[in-house]
Amino acid sequence: MHGVMNKLLRFILKNVEQGAATTCYVALHPQVSGISGEYFADNNLAKADSLGRDIVLAKKLWDFSMNWTEKNTESPNIVI
What we know:
Blueprint: H1 2-12, H2 16-28, E1 39-41, E2 44-46, H3 55-73
Antiparallel strand pairs: 1-2
């Protein structure tokens, strides 16, 4: 059963190189230089789904992130 699942997941999931391809493309390719604030998927300009465009949800995430980072940077616990 484990082998069958692995074979099925290969068709759905990306390997490391495939997963990094869009990030590398957007960071390095001259065709997209100067493009900012856009969403890319599989090396193409794409439209984010409804959750990715939800302004209210984005504000909640921003507020949560700011609150969490403020709490966790006041007295950092650095272990060396």
